[in-house]
Amino acid sequence: MRPSLDAPWWRAAAMLMLASAAGCAGRPPHVATPSRVVDVEPLHIEASRGESGYRFRVFDAQSVFERALALHRAGRCDAAVPVYDRVADDFAGSRYVSAALYNAGLCLAGNGELRGAAARFARLVAEVPTSPDVRDARFELLDLDVRLERWPAAVETADALLQDASLSPDLRVEAMARRAEALFGAGDLARAAAEADQTLRYARLRPASDPVRDDEFLASANFVLAETIRARSEQIEVPEGPVAVQRAALERRARLLLEAQDAYFDTMRWTNARWAAAAGYRVGEMYERFWEAMMGAPVPPPPTRKSPSALRLYRHDYHVSLARLIKPLLRHSISYWELTLEMTERTGVQTPWAARIREDLAVARARLADQPPGPDALERAAQASAKGAAKAGARGRGHRANRAP
């Protein structure tokens, strides 16, 4: 189940055009219906007084649920949710409560009301713990907790899911990958990296008769692994001091940058268009941030004592020389962003990463235009290196296409 180690990610673009048509893979949401039959449902009677006397209306959980379900299926979620809620509020203990809460959660999530949706799924888990809808409700809640950046809650929900020994390999990978994402969001880089690595190892060691079939959350886990390495790299600051001291810090950061880049390339090789776009953005961003870190680093002290005016000239000359030397970092950033943007346009994948690339690409191009001219040999080497690195990949097995759900 490992992604190819020899397929350069840019060659996967043709496969991404097919994979992206499937959209975001995973568990397709379903509209829940009660799963068991009981003999008697409680009745509610409403009385109203009019000019001709009292009028009575008798209804039960089933009739209310069916009215909500009809509104839901007609696309009228705003009207359906209050009716679903009435089932859960007025008919506690009814076999329709679980389905009503689950469907209300789906409606609210579809309308972008994430907190309201999460509240319905959490209520289902708490109030109807034996319902067959609980597992799906937990997966929906896990997705919402991650989107709402409620990291401790997401970890707790993932832990509850992973206690279920009956999870299929794909569902287990989904819960593990989400847990890794939540740990990273909470700032726990070590545990996030370990969870992401364990997710990938679990898939890799599955028997051929029972593999992980969906690459969506394997790509997600690979991305989280890359993110942890990038974050460690960017935590390294360039200290004040002589060149030798600064060089040691920069070399540590550069090693981690290259390690993160390899992990992002592994993410791209899963040929999942959404995660490939995210990974491509991050690679370009890493080079830009490395450039910013170097340009913003303290100027090393001059080898000899200088007057204030001479010191100002020394610092100016140092920045000009440094800018000329590290200009290839900006070229790397621009090249990766251009290639990633081209991939998103060809595959037609809709992702917020494309908008971020366009915005940051304009800034990087303007910065590059402001840089002093570099030596011709250095300019040529930078352009060749950026193109070659974007097409790099280790030699070995062939790549896999992402499968439609």
Amino-to-carboxy terminus distance = 17 Å
* Morphology: elongated
Q: Can you count the helices?
A: 15
Structural class: mainly alpha
The largest sheet, given as strand count, sense and whether it forms a barrel, is:
2 strands, antiparallel
Rg over CA atoms, rounded to whole Å, is 28 Å
In terms of per-residue confidence, which ranges show pLDDT below 50 for 5 or more consecutive residues?
1-25, 35-40, 392-405
Annotation, overall tally of beta strands: 2
Mean of all residue-level pLDDT scores: 84
> What is the share of helical residues?
55-70%
Spatial sequence of strands, sheet with the most strands: 1-2
Q: Element order, helices and strands?
A: HEEHHHHHHHHHHHHHH
What proportion strand?
under 5%
Main traits of this protein?
disordered N terminus, two-stranded antiparallel ribbon, mainly alpha, elongated, 2 strands, 65% helix, 405 residues, 15 helices
